[in-house]
Amino acid sequence: MSLVAFLGGCLSTTPMGTVTGQMVQVGGAPPGSPVAVRGEVTLTNVTTGTKYSAASNGKSGYSVQVPVGTYKVNGLSQQDFANGHEMTALPTSTTVKLRQGTTARDNLYVPIK
Fold first, then answer.
1. Which string of DSSP letters, residue by residue, matches 47-113?
2. Closest Cα to residue 102, out of 19, 29, 30, 21?
3. Residue 38: is it exposed, middle or buried by C-beta count within 10 angstroms (0-12/13-18/19+)?
4. What is the pLDDT of residues 15-45, one digit of tens each?
5. Which structural domains are found in the chain, ordered by start?
6. Best exposed site among 1, 7, 17, 77 by fewest CB in 10 Å?
7. C-alpha separations of 47 from 44, 50, 71, 72, 96 in Å
8. How far is it, in rounded angstroms, from Cα 61 to Cα 23?
9. Which residue, 89, 57, 90, 97, is CA-closest to 73?
């Protein structure tokens, strides 16, 4: 058996796609304009329950390569500041369906109190 044939059998053939987006704060102290925030994003495959995580850095957002499927996307930002006031961000979630070789953009809108 050649090395190429052996390595070819080891490569994954699972169809993949990418979920990308930003966590955006909404609400809070006036003027309440939307602003990108840092936080943790978790994608859970609704069929298998498999979880994938990524950090959203508040500027370029997050990007996760995952097998195709339908995912519940959860976001959590511990706390944030708006106009000098400390705010507590509430958890948020959406659902996204990902097809092979595609990129799904999914922004998470984080309400704050």
1. TT--EEEEEEESSS-EEEEEESEEEEEEEE--EEEETTEEEEBPPEEEEEEE-TT-EEE--EEEEE-
2. 19
3. middle
4. 999 999 888 877 766 666 777 878 888 999 9
5. 14-112 (2.60.40.10)
6. 1
7. 9, 8, 8, 10, 13
8. 7
9. 97
